[in-house]
Q: What sequence folds into this?
């Protein structure tokens, strides 16, 4: 299957959150009222106004601190379970467009109570219900930018090469190259998360659970 | 930066210390990553395991304010294990110079200390001269009185164990950092340092940088691609504003401010122009008379004539020894000596050390004008916490100004690149550009002085051709900064007409026939056009110089001291560090060389590479600073230990300490048992005036927090997310506790010392519940060279907020 792919190389992420903020800017999403809740991760979770969120985790191992950063958003599955679930209720609510993007359309508003089933169907805990409009929302791969010959705004903004975007061949090549490097540095714990199933492939240096409980399933 | 941002990618070992570059200079990590991909090692030394540390190959923790101990230990390691680059040290530094036999160092004090005035007489910090007036040298570096041997002896006291018990860094981590970094003392390898306020904001700020400069010289890293000493500036145009004379003690281009006792231009030149008898020294500052003359001509135009000393008399001159630094200005204001204040593009009620003193000082003003994008804690100080507006006489004016995209002009980045920016849109409402505000203000001031001004000459004779039709013209000022020929002249065989732009500072004259608002920028806007606006992408050396992109001072040189990047024959020390080389055609190719003279092997025609130093050699022994020619560890004004482990001199003997009622401090005090430091966050800009009003940024970092260790949390019964009070002898703030393994207690002289850290970007104006300025806690004591405040190391208490 061709189309567009991401490589999110968490070993290069500095948690600057340029991706998180740029995503809001491109999609004209509002800032939400937050409090300091004992973590730099804010807003605390993905929400109707937050399609991309950098998750922070920290640990102590042998008296040394370890930090993991995880720029979380839709994986754009090759066989999206959300779409499979939705089509039994509302045809066209969730589609895959020519860019490869999995898109939640306005018809998701018609899902009503069944919206929760779509949310539950996602193995990565991505979809959120916009209480105001009743629609399901999430990352749309900036398909409008792609149509205009631009890369998604998160990849465009990333200063360190953590978020990369391109066709399947180039991203898989890059992913394998980076994986080799990560393995030599972090050992065999380094891995790609479900590279055969998704268009947004994450490279992690350790057990994905340590980054986020829904990093994989 | 001696080097520039892109050049970081050429490094083999990157030390980030006194900076959290990953968080506060995020784009720099593009180049850090690039270097790492090529095999570079990244070292992070910081009190906190921050975002930079999370990317590093080696991380070492350190107690705030003990960097000289850490770096002094590294110098000791380099010297005693012969890790230094001997050829470089012998030929390019003053290591071989014989020091005055009366120079001494005993128990923390160098010779010449005046215990009453807290100042040094530096007359013994000199070199022995030969019959020609040149410093005596021992190229073998073995003479016990030579700089190298004195340095070796001085830093031999910085043993790993002693350093460790001072800094709290485990010995094995010290050794790992020292060993790794000193591996760059080889021809083939270079190491770079990226530092910021974590090094500067101390009573020993300048000596922190000096210590690292010595390391870079010992390892042969100065002038090298992937090397240098690199200050990451905290604001996009700090470099530019410093170059253009923002600070009180310098005019544009780092020319000393004239003082009251120096009453004419000849005396100014005599006092400020260094001399050298050495035929091998370019002694570039010998040109200073040309630069000050051209500056005066830029200030006073046709009114500046040889017969009136080019208007030198009209220059404002502080009394000798009188300081007008930030700390001194607010100290004076606090004492009622300053009654009017322009707060332009700044928010001192949040950014100023000892912010309660700063805020209190403002109540003693008659008037204050603030120029800013948003209302802030300074413009609204009179209704802030603890203020009674009815009792405050200060009349406050808030002028709205244009944001950076609403005006054109240049900014100069940390890497000294002057880059032209275009205006994207008009400023909203009544907001005006800074230039337009100044032009309007100037018009009124000039009119007022014209009527009944006292000493009106400086105002009325001020050159005024960069405002056109009442509007500020950025191109006109940029051209004047570059400079003009003021009459038809022939220089270096070329004839120029009055009104021609000067091609470079080599053409400036001492007689008033040229003008230049800042000699360092002469060459930036020439008859060939606005160099800062260039956008060429060619990179012939493939080393990232991009010499056709924008313009870099001086004369588009991308790496300072680059003639030290080559050996005595003019060939790069390493084939993969090739930014400059002397060719068979007897010419330099690559970067713009630091002077075009042939390499050192040509003893007849060469000049030594450090052309700004009077002897042409870099200073390992640096006699110019306030507290000594070698860095020495002193405790911060407030510290957790009673005794300085290195001497009985507890703090910097020349530290600046103020004495108003608001200047309280307390060291080794059980009421304030925890070491504190402040930091920035990626998501907010400076005091937060621009970022706290942006909902996308505010949601990511909504309010003041204090990072504490799990151990301290346990000790004080504080859980992650609890509301706490942080207090110092000067003030207190409410914050949310971030209890984290990223901070760990330190073992200092066998004692457990806890550390806390707060960001300083919050204030009470907006949003309402975000907490107040961390600078309410910090002391207004300062470094004696720069008078920068010691906001990075002080003592506090932290306790759970009752009822929260």
A:
């Amino acid at each position: 299957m061709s189309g567009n792919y991401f490589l999110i190389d968490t070993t290069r992420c500095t948690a600057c959150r340029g991706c998180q903020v740029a995503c809001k800017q491109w999609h004209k999403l509002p800032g939400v009222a937050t409090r300091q809740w004992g973590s730099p991760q804010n807003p605390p979770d993905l929400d109707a106004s937050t399609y991309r969120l950098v998750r922070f985790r920290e640990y102590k191992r042998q008296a040394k601190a370890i930090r993991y950063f995880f720029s979380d958003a839709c994986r754009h599955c090759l066989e999206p379970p959300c779409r499979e679930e939705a089509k039994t209720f509302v045809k066209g609510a969730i589609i895959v467009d020519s860019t490869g993007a999995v898109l939640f359309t306005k018809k998701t508003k018609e899902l009503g109570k069944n919206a929760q089933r779509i949310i539950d169907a996602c193995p990565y805990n991505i979809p959120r219900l916009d209480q105001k409009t009743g629609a399901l929302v999430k990352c749309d791969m900036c398909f409008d930018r792609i149509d205009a010959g631009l890369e998604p705004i998160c990849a465009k903004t990333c200063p360190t090469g953590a978020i990369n975007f391109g066709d399947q061949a180039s991203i898989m090549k890059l992913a394998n190259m980076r994986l080799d490097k990560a393995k030599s540095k972090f050992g065999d714990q380094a891995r790609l998360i479900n590279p055969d199933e998704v268009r947004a492939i994450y490279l992690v240096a350790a057990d994905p659970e340590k980054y986020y409980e829904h990093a994989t399933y | 930066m001696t080097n520039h941002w892109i050049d970081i990618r050429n490094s083999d070992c990157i030390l980030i210390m006194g900076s959290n570059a990953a968080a506060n200079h995020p784009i720099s990590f593009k180049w850090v990553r690039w270097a790492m991909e090529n095999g570079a090692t990244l070292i992070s030394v910081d009190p906190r395991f921050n975002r930079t540390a999370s990317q590093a190959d080696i991380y070492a923790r350190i107690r705030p304010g003990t960097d000289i101990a850490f770096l002094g230990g590294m110098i000791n390691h380099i010297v005693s294990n012969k890790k230094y680059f001997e050829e470089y040290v012998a030929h390019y530094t003053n290591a071989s110079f014989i020091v005055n036999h009366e120079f001494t160092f005993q128990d923390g004090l160098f010779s010449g200390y005046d215990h009453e005035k807290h100042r040094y007489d530096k007359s013994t910090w000199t070199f022995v001269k030969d019959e020609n007036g040149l410093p005596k040298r021992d190229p073998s570096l073995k003479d016990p009185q030579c700089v190298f041997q004195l340095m070796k002896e001085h830093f031999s006291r910085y043993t790993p164990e002693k350093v460790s018990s001072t800094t709290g860094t485990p010995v094995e981590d010290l050794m790992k950092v020292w060993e790794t970094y000193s591996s760059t003392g080889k021809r083939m390898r270079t190491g770079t340092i990226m530092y910021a306020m974590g090094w500067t904001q101390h009573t020993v700020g300048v000596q922190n940088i000096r210590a690292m400069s010595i390391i870079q010289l010992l390892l042969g890293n100065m002038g090298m691609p992937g090397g240098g000493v690199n200050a990451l500036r905290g604001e996009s145009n700090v470099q530019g504003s410093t170059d253009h004379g923002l600070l009180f003690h310098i005019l544009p281009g780092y020319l000393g401010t004239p003082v009251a006792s120096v009453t004419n231009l000849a005396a100014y030149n005599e006092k400020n122009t260094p001399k050298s008898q050495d035929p091998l020294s370019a002694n570039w500052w010998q040109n200073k008379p040309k630069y000050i003359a051209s500056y005066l001509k830029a200030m006073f135009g046709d009114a500046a004539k040889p017969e009136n000393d080019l208007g030198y008399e009209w220059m404002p001159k502080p009394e000798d020894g009188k300081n007008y630094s930030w700390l001194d200005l607010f100290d004076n204001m606090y004492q009622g000596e300053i009654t009017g204040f322009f707060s332009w593009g700044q928010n001192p009620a949040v950014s100023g050390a000892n912010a309660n003193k700063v805020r209190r000082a403002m109540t003693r003003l008659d008037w204050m004008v603030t120029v800013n994008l948003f209302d802030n804690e300074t413009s609204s100080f009179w209704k802030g916490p603890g203020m009674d507006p009815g009792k405050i006489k200060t009349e406050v004016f808030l002028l709205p100004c244009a944001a950076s995209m609403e005006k054109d002009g240049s900014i100069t980045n940390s890497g000294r690149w002057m880059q032209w920016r275009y205006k994207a849109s008009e400023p909203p409402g009544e907001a005006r550009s800074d230039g337009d505000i100044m032009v309007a203000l100037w018009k009124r001031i000039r009119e007022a002085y014209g009527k009944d001004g006292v000493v009106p000459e400086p105002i009325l004779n001020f050159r005024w051709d960069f405002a056109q039709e009442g509007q500020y013209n950025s191109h006109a000022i940029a051209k004047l900064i570059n400079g003009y020929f003021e009459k038809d002249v022939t220089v270096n065989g070329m004839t120029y007409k009055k009104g021609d732009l000067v091609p470079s500072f080599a053409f400036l004259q001492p007689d008033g026939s040229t003008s230049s608002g800042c000699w360092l920028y002469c060459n930036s806007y020439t008859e060939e056009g606005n160099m800062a606006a260039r956008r060429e992408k060619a990179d012939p050396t493939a080393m990232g110089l991009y010499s056709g992109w924008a313009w870099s001072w001086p004369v588009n040189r991308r790496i300072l001291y680059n003639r030290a990047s080559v050996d005595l024959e003019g060939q790069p020390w390493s084939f993969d560090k090739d930014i400059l080389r002397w060719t068979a055609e007897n010419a330099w190719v690559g970067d713009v060389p630091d002077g075009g003279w042939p390499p050192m092997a040509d003893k007849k025609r060469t000049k030594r590479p450090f052309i700004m130093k009077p002897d042409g050699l870099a200073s390992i022994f640096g006699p110019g600073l306030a507290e000594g020619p070698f860095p020495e560890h002193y405790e911060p004004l407030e510290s957790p230990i009673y005794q300085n482990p290195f001497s009985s001199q507890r703090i910097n003997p020349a530290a600046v300490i103020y004495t108003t009622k608001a200047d309280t401090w307390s060291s080794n005090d059980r009421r304030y048992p925890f070491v504190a430091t402040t930091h920035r966050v990626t998501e907010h800009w400076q005091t937060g005036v621009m970022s706290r009003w942006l909902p996308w940024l505010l949601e990511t970092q909504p309010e003041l927090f204090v990072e504490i260790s799990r151990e301290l949390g346990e000790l004080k019964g504080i859980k992650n997310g609890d509301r706490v009070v942080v207090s110092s002898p000067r003030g207190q703030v409410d914050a949310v506790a971030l209890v984290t393994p990223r901070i760990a207690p330190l073992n200092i002289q066998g004692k457990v010392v806890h550390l806390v850290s707060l960001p300083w970007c919050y204030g009470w104006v907006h949003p309402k519940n975000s907490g107040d300025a961390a600078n309410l806690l910090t002391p207004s004591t300062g470094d004696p060279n720069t008078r920068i405040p010691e906001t990075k190391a002080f003592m506090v208490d932290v306790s759970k907020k009752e009822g929260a």
User: Anything to note?
Assistant: Residues 249-319+484-521 of chain B form one domain. The mean pLDDT of chain B is 97. The radius of gyration of chain B is 26 Å.
